[in-house]
Design goal:
Largest sheet: 3 strands, antiparallel
Radius of gyration: 20 Å
Number of strands: 3
CATH class of the largest domain: Mainly Alpha
Oligomer: single chain
Strand content: 5-15%
Distance between the termini: 12 Å
Number of domains: 2
CATH superfamily of the largest domain: Winged helix-like DNA-binding domain superfamily/Winged helix DNA-binding domain
CATH architecture of the largest domain: Orthogonal Bundle
Order of helices and strands: HHEHHEEHHH
Mean pLDDT: 82
Shape: elongated
CATH topology of the largest domain: Arc Repressor Mutant, subunit A
Helix content: 55-70%
């Protein structure tokens, strides 16, 4: 189970990203993806540092505008540093992937009147990709059922103790 801090950050991001209409996960262009990867790899960065690092070849103003868009999408935090900003990712790559996956699955489940139909698509896709994933899915479902039963009974799961 993700830490409380991670759960809070994911909730904040979900609320932040809900301004994007039916999908709470923003679509990112190639430059946005590249800059986000650069910030993840460095921890923090200014626009100047990204350009001087050599991996980003766009004009300063293009990078500055794109970083501002990522900030406005809720994916980056920023703090003033002199006449510029120092940027930091709000979530790790894994946390963002989780939010995107959960959102995509939620949309799939909401797309049909009977939730069992999209679930059958998921099972079909898993088995086509790797049949062993079905076993992993079963383990995860059983674990979640135990957790829900324990919570319903007012008992903490072992991970919460």
């Amino acid at each position: 189970m993700p830490s409380l801090a991670t759960q809070i950050r994911v909730r904040v991001l979900n609320k932040t990203l809900s301004v994007f209409g039916s999908s709470s996960t923003p679509q990112l262009g190639p430059l946005e993806q590249q800059l986000l990867r650069e910030v993840w790899s460095r921890g923090t960065a200014t626009v100047r540092e990204l350009i001087e690092g050599g991996n980003v070849r766009q004009a300063y103003t293009t990078v500055m505008t794109t970083m501002d868009r990522l900030y406005k999408k809720g994916l980056l935090e920023r703090a003033p540093e002199g006449r510029a900003f120092r940027y930091r990712a709000r979530l790790t790559s894994e946390e963002l992937q989780r939010v995107a996956a959960v959102d995509g699955i939620r949309q799939l489940l909401e797309s049909a009147q009977a939730a069992s139909l999209p679930l059958s698509y998921l099972v079909e896709a898993l088995s086509a990709h790797d049949a062993k994933l079905l076993d992993e899915l079963q383990v995860l479902v059983e674990r979640k059922r135990r957790e829900l039963r324990a919570n319903k009974a007012g008992v903490q799961s072992p991970k919460e103790r």
